[in-house]
Each structure stands twice: as C-alpha cells, then as structure tokens.
Amino acid sequence: MAESSAKRLRTDAGAVTIGTHNGHFHADEALAVHMLRTHIPTYRDASLIRTRDPALLATCHTVVDVGGEYDAAANRYDHHQRTFATTFPARATKLSSAGLVYMHFGKEMIARRLQAAEDSEQVALIWRKIYESFVEALDAHDNGISVYDPAALAAAGIEKKFSNGGFTLGAMVGRLNANWNDAVPEDPAAAQAAEDARFVLASQRIGEEFDRDLEYYTSAWLPAREVVVGAFSERAEFDAQGRIMVLKGQSVPWKDHLYTLEEEQGDDVKKVLYVLYPEKPGPGAKWRIQCVPETKDSFQSRKPLPEAWRGFRDEKLDEIASIDGCVFVHAAGFIGGNKTFEGALAMAQKALE
C-alpha cells in the first residue's frame, strides 16, 4: 500500500527518480544523493522520493540507503542487509550508501572535472585519495566503526585529553535533524515537509564540503604532485643523503606526495627531514624551513629544529645559530625562517648535525 503524501517527498520532477528513506537522516545518504544529482548528468534533473514504502521504492530508477539490496546493475545501493560486506578496493572499512555511490560513480565525477579518461592514472589517484580522505570517514561513521580500536586504547590506558566537540562530517549532518523537543506541526504533511526540508539542507551542506575536496584535489593537489616529484628527485643536490627537499618556485601542498614518494622508494632510502620553500613567489622572498611530521596529521616532527634555537628571532637567533639572516624559529621547533634561501639551507644543514 502506497504511503500518503505526508510520508514522502518528491521534488524536481524529472524522468529519473532517486529514492532514499524518510525519517532521521544521516551523512551517507545525504552525500550519496548530492553526488548523483550534482555530478552525474543522468541524475541532474532527478526527482527525489523519501520513503520506506517498498512499492514506491520499486518505481525509482535508483535507490540509496534503503530497500535491503545492493545491485549496481539495478541501481540499488543499500548496505543494511546482514550479508553485506563490500569494501572499497584495498580498504577494510565496510561501505555505506555514500561509499557505494562513490565507488561506482566517483571516477566519472573526477574524469569530468579533469576532462580525462576514467581509466587514466590521474583519475585513479584522486579517486582513491578522496575516498580515503573524505568518504571513508562517512562509511565508518554510519557502520559504527571507530577510528581506533577501543579495546586496544583501553588496554594501553589511553584516554582523551579533551573533547573534540563532535566536529565530524557525520555530526555536522546529524545536527540538522530536528531536536527531540522541537515543535512539530500538527498537520502530518506539514511535519513531513519540515523534515524533508532539513534533509535537502543536509544534502547541500555535506555536498559543499565534498565539492570543496573534489575541487582541491583536482585543481591544486594533483598539480602539486608534479612539483614535489621534481623536488624529491633533486634532494641530493642539497644533502648527500637526501634529507633536505627544496620547493624552488613556491610552496605547494607537499606532505601527501612526499609520504607517497618515500613509500614507493622503500625503507632503504633516507627520509626527508626538512622542506624549504619561499614564503611567496618572486625574487626577494623570505624562506621557510619546515620539519617533516612523523605523519600528515602529527605534531611530532621527524627531527625538530635544535632546541637552542627555539623561540628566538632576528639578530639574537643569528648569534645563537651562527647563521646570518635568521628570522625566527617556532618555540615548538617545527618551523623557522630566514631572509634568504642560502640562510634557510644553512639552517637545515646545521640542524642535521
């Protein structure tokens, strides 16, 4: 029996219809709907139905996060069935509806943005990167998978030092659901319309974050790879063991690419400890020396700048380091500056000692 209009939403009537569930919504289906409607031409003018009625879902061209079926050939992308265990290639996290839609349509989105073939190396690189940096967190959140093994943390006696405020992608969408004590319209149709409007807002909100990542990785992160590859290949010019890398023209996002290049080189290659780059393009720019973190998100450097330099500036730092042109060294020792490239290089080389 079909649901009443109070229990479903149908918007932007078009030839193709996307179905998802009504009621409390989550980040995974909000993102899945956004990716399809925004980035895949087939779904550009798609209608949206929010329902749990099997009869209505059966009329939909595509169904996400409801229906108990995963069959890409039939455009069914649910993950709640007991037998579901699908993961992204070479990853262990079970997929949600966001991961399923991204796995099947992500390369098309990226290829369109790059104007490249879907089977190109560049598309594959970004497809994997966006999954690992954005979509996988939603898959884990929706499937109740913690970032760290709770049992291992408890066994090690590790406790949080402070609350992170719940600032996650999933929490961001969750906040857009109604509160338990919010006023609800007495008219069922009006109540459903209010819920539906919240879902549309949630889909737009998570979509904005996804689109920013898609834009960043295609237009900034990928071009930076070529710059880092060049600098990585020339590092022996500044240190015989390759522990100093210089970005000669300007700074670019380098951490991801550096870690990937080092991993490809294997354990026999010395790790880069310091990265040098100008503060801005053009002649006369001051230079920075930045310590490479243990991991991308770590505050622990592989080799911090000397403790004796930390917290000092200008002439005093020149005196302590016996290097001209010093500007500063941060109190935590993870970054410093010099007026010239030669001075920054001297700081790096001396810090290696």
Automatic annotation (TrEMBL):
<comment type="similarity">
    <text>Belongs to the MYG1 family.</text>
</comment>
<dbReference type="GO" id="GO:0005737">
    <property type="term" value="C:cytoplasm"/>
</dbReference>
<dbReference type="Pfam" id="PF03690">
    <property type="entry name" value="MYG1_exonuc"/>
</dbReference>
<dbReference type="GO" id="GO:0016787">
    <property type="term" value="F:hydrolase activity"/>
</dbReference>
<keyword id="KW-0378">Hydrolase</keyword>
<dbReference type="GO" id="GO:0005634">
    <property type="term" value="C:nucleus"/>
</dbReference>
<dbReference type="InterPro" id="IPR003226">
    <property type="entry name" value="MYG1_exonuclease"/>
</dbReference>
<protein>
    <submittedName>
        <fullName>Metal-dependent protein hydrolase</fullName>
    </submittedName>
</protein>
